[in-house]
Q: What sequence folds into this?
């Protein structure tokens, strides 16, 4: 199957870029779109999904081109919290940051894409005229990094900014456990 048209959402452009605070690709978004198209046939259903209709994850074979922003926390990790929101119109939440530490090595890279139909759910918006948009990058030391529990809750409850989906109790538990041991590094 040929890859459909793929664009980059404004959400990903502002978050998944160098300095955006989240995982990012060491290259241009145009290069990333080409990589996604080349590996489109390996796509998998996104978290909480059982088909390839609305949300997919495309694994990429070049994790060395991705950068993580997370550190494993320990008793010695200096942490700070901040009230924030992902984007205007969404509910605020408490975000925990590490102020120092070694970034986790990236061993696996994946790109999360939403179909045009999924982007419009729950009063959502599209950034392009493409059939699919990149909404997030996953740069992780583990192959199946779980989604952040708050993102899962936002989706499951169809809160502003969420894409309605259901998750199992085990998926939530794995996500909570994984993310309870990590924090995003805040560069000063």
A:
């Amino acid at each position: 199957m040929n890859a459909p048209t793929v664009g980059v959402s404004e959400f990903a452009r502002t978050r998944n870029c160098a300095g955006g605070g989240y995982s990012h690709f060491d290259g241009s978004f145009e290069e990333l779109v080409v990589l996604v198209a080349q590996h489109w046939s390996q796509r998998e259903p996104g978290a909480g999904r059982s088909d390839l209709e609305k949300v997919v994850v495309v694994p990429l074979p070049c994790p060395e081109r991705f950068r993580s922003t997370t550190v494993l926390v320990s008793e010695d990790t200096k942490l700070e919290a901040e009230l924030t929101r992902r984007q205007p119109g969404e509910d605020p939440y408490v975000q925990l940051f590490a102020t120092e530490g070694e970034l986790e090595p990236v061993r696996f890279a994946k790109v999360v894409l939403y179909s045009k139909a999924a982007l419009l759910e729950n009063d959502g918006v599209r950034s392009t005229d493409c059939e699919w948009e990149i909404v997030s990058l996953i740069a992780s030391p583990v192959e199946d990094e779980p989604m952040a529990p708050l993102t899962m809750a936002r989706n499951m409850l169809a809160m502003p900014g969420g894409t309605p989906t259901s998750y199992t109790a085990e998926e939530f538990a794995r996500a909570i456990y994984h993310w309870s041991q990590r924090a995003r590094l805040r560069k000063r």
Summary: The longest helix spans residues 169-179.
